[in-house]
Write a structure and sequence with these properties.
alpha+beta; 5-stranded mixed sheet; 27 helices; 43% helix; binds zinc ion
Length: 827
């Protein structure tokens, strides 16, 4: 058995579009038959793949990232496995049908890709799941890894006898440890999966579709507690998707597996969706977090049609998947589940994600992003492909009318059933359905990057539209203003923005919010007069979309250094006690603390003001409510009093009805660590007391937050890969180490970050690689010295393109923070 010198980690360059096109022109994959042996080792697994294919005569390559290879045969002729280089085996094919058989040994991975294997710290049980996206399928089985070579799969699995196995098709268990899966519908490689381990299962059925849920044994009770909510919304969403699309779900069972250490929120594998398992709530969470989970459930269901029945031909069209699933996910959640306020949550949680991404140096168009490299395309899974794309589709549905919008979608899904398509195919379907003026809409919103900036010129009585300098455009906006006199109520005013300046009827001295109901897509700034009125107005604003709109306009203004951090703190102090949507607290507070509070003229007293406001809200809200919990989370994050925090840990002086659970306890430990009033021994003891997966990650976050050299070294060893940990702990180490107020201690680490980033980039691969670059970025280090060290990374040849892109965006954020300081000063 030849051992290969290459590690299974990813090459710097991914599959190129031209290579994918040539391969798809050459061959058709007829079937995959995959036998996996998960029972022989904890480090590796056997992977025997038989591929049936039909080809023209020509040269191509097979994708394979093994630990070692036993044999590869093409039509019974043995191939030279030493030809395997960088995950590719050259193939010379004659015209006709062929059978390719690859007998290999693969490595289990711990970075959330390929076949990820983890040990639950709570009980020592082992769990496995497959993540083939975006280019990890060849580290599970030999394949032609591109979205437009679809084929049916038949899996055979040998697993330890106490494991259950779930995959893309229904599985039977003819004898202990042996699992046979039925042949699937034609699937793309990137959504082939397998979930295996001693998982706890919940089963149900709806409308002829067998439903399943699964999670680790140690969180079985938590899954059972939420099973009814999850299954109910799944059923409601199936009914609604069937009604909207008029096409039956075609993949047999619908299993939703909550799996450990998953990088994304979820992955839409047909028949077997995988979710990050912190979405099985082991502690009490806010309603906002529940809505996020609900829209994720609906998002993955939407993908069964958009993505799985009809799949983009290449990654430049990933918006067809993500924008669509994001839009349908929120729409259907709001329409048919108990979370009818999903659009409000979306406004608090997702709008700025999209708008900020759209204003970064890395901005790109929603559609046709032009990406030629599969690996680089991973970076386009961002706020633009999700939040902006969703907003644009919502506008399109409003313009076309819902019937035309949906008729085009049905036509598209029917024509390209189990196949691949491009955006031009979808545009053609919409045109057939009767959509007019599609070219100009596409030009203005889908294929041009960047948002317009909309601001009020109060003296002139005009709305000023400024397109991004780097991406000129002449977009019109149909939107509403919300206008309110001092002490009065908001009322809507319709505006058609065409051209640079649009006259708007605004009474002198009234507050004006631009597009708070999100009819359009733009960075909408509130002017000074409005900002001064907001702390009073927000306390009387009953429409939650307007309160979200207030925060979106303030955050957009802050991004442009047009809003004084002190004014934001004034607004937050007035708003905290009156917000009735806990999503507002959950998704606004972290930004408030990171941005406005830390850049305000007196960060300590700003935090103290918010602390008092949030604590009195936590005491005033209904006992045991999620609003009370949301307020308490803010209270903890702003606390400066060690005795108060330790009292809460001991259960003393808690607001009535508030339960101290694992998550809240760790929030307090992290805060104590930031304040430097606990130590490693105490944190270790807290971990030992309840050593769950959540505790391990939060323990890491707390340890690296301590203001000591040892703490920062602990973080850095994980950054450089000197100490190898799984992805969640790795990311917590980065996100926790840079703390405001610890600048002196942290100063040397700016230079080390810059010097060691290339090492770190080599130590990590796949999804985690660029995340690590961003998570460990010295985001709070605003000095000239820090900037001088960090800015050159934007053009460093030593960094892979995805890392350079993230760092470039992180430097942009640092520049914007420095612009706020330059404009408004700082203590
Ligand atoms: Zn998605």
């Amino acid at each position: 058995m030849p051992e290969l010198s290459e590690s299974p980690s990813q090459p710097v360059r991914g599959l190129q579009r031209s290579e994918a096109t040539a391969r798809a022109d050459l061959l058709v994959v007829d079937s995959y038959d995959v036998t996996l042996d998960l029972a022989s080792s904890e480090e590796t697994f056997g992977s025997l793949t038989r591929i049936g294919l039909t080809s023209h005569a020509g040269n191509t390559f097979l994708d394979l990232k093994p630990a070692s290879v036993r044999s590869i045969t093409l039509d019974d002729r043995e191939l030279d496995v030493d030809q395997l280089r960088d995950g590719r085996l050259p193939l010379e094919l004659t015209a006709g049908r062929h059978e390719l058989v690859v007998d290999a040994v693969m490595r289990f991975r711990n970075d959330g890709e390929g076949l990820h294997r983890s040990v639950d710290p709570a009980d020592g049980r082992h769990y496995v799941y497959g993540m083939s996206f975006m280019d990890a399928a060849p580290s599970i089985f030999a394949c032609f890894d591109q979205p437009d070579l679809k084929a049916p799969y038949t899996f055979h699995v040998r697993a330890p006898q106490d494991w259950v196995v779930v995959g893309n098709a229904p599985a039977s268990n003819p004898e202990p440890g042996v699992w046979e899966l039925e042949p699937t519908q034609p699937l793309s490689t990137y959504f082939v999966t397998l979930v295996a381990g001693p998982y706890h299962l919940v089963r149900d059925e709806h409308d002829g579709i067998p439903l399943g849920l699964s999670a680790r044994q140690s969180i079985a009770a938590d899954l059972e507690r939420d099973a009814d909510e999850l299954l109910t919304m799944t059923k409601q969403c199936f009914d609604e998707f069937h009604r909207l699309f008029d096409i039956r779900y075609p993949f047999g069972d619908y299993h939703q597996a909550f799996v450990p250490e998953f990088n994304a929120g979820a992955m839409e594998n047909p028949g077997c969706v995988t979710f990050r398992d912190p979405l099985v709530f082991t502690s009490k969470v806010t309603r906002g977090v529940r809505i996020q989970r609900a829209t994720t459930v609906a998002h993955e269901m939407a993908h069964q049609w958009f993505g799985n029945i009809t799949t983009p031909r290449w990654w430049d069209d990933l918006w067809l998947n993500e924008s669509f699933a994001e839009y349908m996910g929120v729409r259907v959640t709001a329409a048919v589940t108990e979370y009818d306020d999903a659009w409000v949550q979306n406004s608090f949680a997702r709008r700025q994600w999209g708008l900020v991404a759209d204003q970064r140096p890395s901005t790109h168009s929603v559609a046709g992003n032009g990406e030629e490299d599969a690996l680089a395309a991973l970076q386009n899974f961002d706020g633009i492909s999700y939040a902006k794309g969703s907003s644009i589709l919502k506008q399109l549905a409003a313009r076309l009318g819902d019937e035309v919008f949906l008729e085009g979608v049905r036509d598209h899904l029917t024509r390209h059933r189990f196949g691949n398509a491009t955006m031009h195919d979808l545009f053609a379907s919409w045109t057939r359905a009767g959509a007019g003026g599609f070219d100009s809409f596409s030009r203005e919103w889908l294929v041009t990057a960047g948002p317009d900036r909309l601001a009020l010129d109060r003296a002139a009585g005009e709305l000023v539209r400024t397109p991004p300098a780097a991406h000129p455009a002449d977009r019109s906006h149909s939107l509403r203003l919300a206008v309110a006199p001092a002490g009065g109520d908001w009322s809507p005013v319709d505006v058609e923005v065409t051209g640079e300046r649009t006259p708007v009827p605004v009474p002198d001295g009234d507050a004006v919010l631009i597009d708070p109901w999100e009819d359009s897509w733009a960075a909408c700034l509130a002017d000074k007069t409005t900002l001064a009125l907001l702390p009073d107005l927000v306390t009387r604003t009953e429409d939650p979309m307007l309160r979200a709109g207030i925060w979106n306009s303030v955050r957009s203004g802050f991004h442009h250094a047009e809003v004084d951090p002190d004014a934001v703190v004034d607004l937050a102090e007035a708003w905290l006690p009156v917000e009735t949507q806990d999503a507002g607290l959950t998704y606004t507070t972290p930004w408030l603390l990171r941005s406005a509070v830390s850049l305000s003229s007196d960060p300590e007293s700003s935090a103290a003001r918010l602390h008092r406001a949030a604590l009195s809200a936590a005491r005033a809200h209904e006992a045991g409510s999620t609003l009370q919990l949301g307020s308490m989370q803010t209270t903890v994050a702003t606390a400066a009093d060690e005795q108060l925090l330790r009292g809460w840990l001991a259960g003393r002086d808690l607001p009535d009805g508030l339960e101290m659970d694992l998550e809240l306890r760790w929030r307090i430990w992290v805060r104590l660590a930031v304040l430097g009033v606990t130590d490693r021994a105490e944190l270790d003891a807290a971990l030992d007391e309840e050593p769950t997966a959540v505790s391990r990650v939060e323990h890491t976050r707390a340890v690296v937050s301590l203001p000591t050299v040892e703490a920062k070294e602990f973080a850095f060893e994980r950054f450089t890969g000197a100490v190898s940990v799984a992805n969640y702990e790795l990311r917590a180490a980065g996100l926790g180490m840079w703390r405001e107020g610890q600048e002196e201690l942290l100063a040397p680490y700016v230079e080390r970050y810059a010097a060691e980033l290339p090492t770190a980039a080599r130590a990590h691969s796949g999804w985690v690689q660029a995340d690590v670059a961003e998570d460990f970025f010295p985001a709070c280090m605003v000095s000239d010295e820090a900037m001088a060290l960090l800015a050159p990374l934007r053009t460093s040849d030593d960094l892979p393109a995805p890392v350079r892109r993230r760092v470039t965006d992180a430097v942009d954020e640092l520049e914007r923070r420095r612009a706020v300081i330059a404009r408004f000063g700082r203590a």
